[in-house]
Design a protein that fits this description.
Residues 7-245 form the Carbohydrate kinase FGGY N-terminal domain. This protein has helices at residues 52-68, 116-126, 135-144, 157-166, 173-176, 191-197, 218-223, 238-245, 300-309, 316-325, 363-389, 401-404, 407-417, 430-440, 458-476, and strands at 6-12, 16-23, 29-37, 41-42, 48-50, 75-82, 88-90, 100-101, 153-155, 170-172, 182-183, 188-189, 206-208, 213-214, 232-233, 236-237, 253-258, 262-269, 281-286, 289-296, 333-335, 353-355, 395-399, 422-425, 448-450. The protein is of the alpha+beta class and 477 residues long. Helix 3 (135-144) runs parallel beside helix 6.
């Protein structure tokens, strides 16, 4: 693509929708950004949902704002990054009949009646264990509640948004790999996984190869004529986009991304990725590349929860100062599972807990303990992925909006994780940048700064890590 071309990147997150215009000739520099908050509703049954009508309206709000500012002029392609694991039931016309069920759900679902060997074969074929996060368990739960009427279709929020904008119902292989239903070797719906989920192929959208571009439709021509004749690339999973946007080299680097949630990931070539070890999942970046990793439901949402419930200041600078002033002896050990487990986490960890509370502990100390707990979980993830790779990581690339917004947390993680080759990815929009780089076929090298572990603190952190592992074992029971 020429250096004068611009990429529009849609970032379909679970806490916000973002639309960014990036300059491909200037290192994917962000030229314009529009953002709209969305709110997850926590239901009594443990499900965490988004309203699909409000969500599509948020996308239109962002696009309208960029259009009215003239920022869509010159856009030559559209890239999409989307939250993985979302599930929405639509009717034959594409109208929603359920809310969007997100990754954050913590509902109790029944395990299917298959053997351990059958479950293991499915895990290795699809990259996904039989867990609450995936459609293999969620769809039977929804069907039992009567929420899947005759003629309905199961889609992701990415598929629904693209249908609303370009008029074609399709699901990218990258997004489909986060459902637990995709055969990673064949790049097709896995028949045995569909049987477990009780899904007929007619209830699913057509599969599009990752990177396929869709033409615009009448909706675009009327409302966004600047985007009607440019290719719309089908969605890539947000974790895959963040890994690419972090500048990871396949097989060499590990990435740690902390946004609303948190994940540790290893980028690998699909044809040379090793056998998937227990505790890890594997999804597609594109048809040639996979990302293997572990994820945690707690991330930046721990900050948001603490600010609201513990009445901590919303001003970032004020909160940073409070965290920096907390004495080490007043930071309790915390197991940070406020939002339940993700695949690879022990299923018993369905709630958080603090140990070592005293009258010295403040609200800021409680938050510091939660963030420390997540750091120790990430330390476990690094060890597991280095075992998966069969070698130590060349670099550990730390990024994501929650981390780039907090110097206190950056320093804390740099000491906790203990990697001598840790770098901070200073680009706050790694997901959008990664999606744009994928769509445009560009190599991406983000700006990095050193964030090595603090040597004199290593012994103390090792002791706290051992204390954390003890508290974690007690929480598992």
């Amino acid at each position: 693509m020429s250096s004068a071309e611009h990429v529009l990147a849609l970032d379909l997150g679970s806490s916000s929708v973002r639309a960014l215009v990036l300059d491909a000739g200037a290192g994917l520099r962000v030229r314009a950004l529009s953002r709209r908050q969305v709110r997850i509703e926590l239901r009594p049954d443990g499900a965490a949902t988004l309203d699909p009508h409000t969500y599509v309206a948020a996308v239109h709000h962002c696009l309208d704002e960029l259009r009215d500012a003239g920022s869509l002029d010159g856009v030559t392609r559209v890239a999409v990054a989307s939250q993985w694991h979302s599930l929405l039931v639509v009717d034959g016309r594409g109208d929603p009949v359920t809310p969007v069920f997100t990754w954050a759900g913590n509902q109790e679902l029944c395990a299917p009646g298959i053997t351990t060997d059958e479950a293991e074969r499915l895990r290795l074929a699809t990259g996904c264990e039989l867990a609450t996060l995936y459609w293999t368990l969620r769809v039977p739960w929804l069907r039992a509640s009567g929420a899947v009427p005759r003629g309905a279709v199961l889609v992701s929020i990415a598929g629904h948004v693209l249908e609303a904008l370009v008029g074609r119902r399709t699901e990218s292989a990258s997004i489909a790999s986060g459902t637990g239903l995709l055969d990673l070797a064949e790049l097709a719906w896995h028949p045995a996984a569909l049987d477990v989920a009780g899904i007929a192929t007619g209830e699913l959208p057509e599969l599009a190869p990752s990177g396929e571009a869709l033409p615009g439709g009448p909706t675009l021509a009327r409302r966004y004529p600047q985007l009607a004749r440019v290719p719309w690339h089908v969605a890539v999973g947000d974790g895959a986009a963040a890994t690419v946007g972090s500048g990871a080299v396949p097989g060499r680097d590990l990435t740690i991304t902390v946004g609303t949630s948190a994940a540790a990931r290893l980028l690998e070539r699909r044809d040379s990725a090793g056998r998937l070890q227990r505790g890890c999942w594997r999804y597609l970046v594109d048809d040639e590349t996979v990302v293997t990793g572990q994820a945690w439901s707690g991330g930046g949402n721990l900050f948001a929860w603490a600010q609201e419930v513990l009445r901590l200041p919303a001003d970032p600078d004020e909160l940073e100062a409070l965290l920096a002033a907390v004495p080490e002896r007043a930071i309790p050990i915390a197991v940070p599972y406020l939002y339940g487990p993700r695949p690879g986490n022990p299923a018993e960890l369905r709630s958080g807990r603090w140990t070592g509370l005293s009258a010295q502990v403040t609200a800021a100390g409680l938050l510091a303990g939660l963030l420390d707990g997540l750091g120790f979980e990430l330390r476990l993830g690094i060890a597991n992925l280095e075992e998966q790779a069969g070698r130590p990581a060349s670099r550990v690339l730390l990024g994501g909006g929650a981390v780039t917004a907090s110097r206190w947390w950056q320093r804390r993680l740099g000491a906790q994780l203990g990697s001598p080759h840790m770098c901070l990815v200073t680009e706050p929009e790694v997901t959008a940048v990664g999606a744009a780089a994928q769509a445009a076929g560009l190599a991406w090298t983000p700006p990095l700064e050193s964030l090595a572990a603090v040597p004199e603190l290593a012994g103390r952190w090792d002791r706290r890590f051992e204390e954390y592992l003890g508290a974690r074992e007690e929480a598992i029971g």
